[in-house]
Amino acid sequence: MSNALIRNIEKLVALDAAAVDNILAVCKYKTIKKKDFFLQEGEVQRSLVFVAEGCLRSYSIDENGFEHILQFAPPGWWIGDMRSSLDQTPASLNIDAVDESEVVLIAMKDLEKLYDTVPMLDRFFRILSERSLAAQQHRVIDALSLSAKERYNNFCSQYPSLITCLPQKYVASYIGITPEFLSKMLKQPVKK
């Protein structure tokens, strides 16, 4: 798991041996069983989460009990309720395991110390945050301007490894339609 984490960071920034040692010294490892929660609405997220194996999802539940999935995190992705982790306030999101998952945790208190001892980590998370913000903006624009079929195709492009293994209800929730509409849409013949 630690190798996957270091490879993920080194995709964006260079780390020397001392930096790797400092990062690994604060990492905690956890297995999350399928359908178990990492975080529930109202709890405070105290650690950043890197998915080494499996898949997590973040979502909110509206007043009618409908789930609205914000993100899937397959291997190599980070996931969290950013407001909760940054401000140490109650989470508005739930994060659970789609499949049994192995995750690497870095406590927020340790992360602050790492920024001083491993300056490149600060750069890594800045780049990651910028990319995440850009992706979220793009997703909002897509939700406002694209058809359900176009949003589905974008989902397939973004998460090609997940499209065959996720329940249709999760995919439907992510693209903002009902499972029934998704099923009907997928049964329609492709127009040439």
TrEMBL record:
<dbReference type="InterPro" id="IPR018490">
    <property type="entry name" value="cNMP-bd_dom_sf"/>
</dbReference>
<dbReference type="Pfam" id="PF00027">
    <property type="entry name" value="cNMP_binding"/>
</dbReference>
<dbReference type="InterPro" id="IPR014710">
    <property type="entry name" value="RmlC-like_jellyroll"/>
</dbReference>
<dbReference type="InterPro" id="IPR000595">
    <property type="entry name" value="cNMP-bd_dom"/>
</dbReference>
<feature type="domain" description="Cyclic nucleotide-binding">
    <location>
        <begin position="11"/>
        <end position="114"/>
    </location>
</feature>
<protein>
    <submittedName>
        <fullName>Catabolite gene activator protein</fullName>
    </submittedName>
</protein>
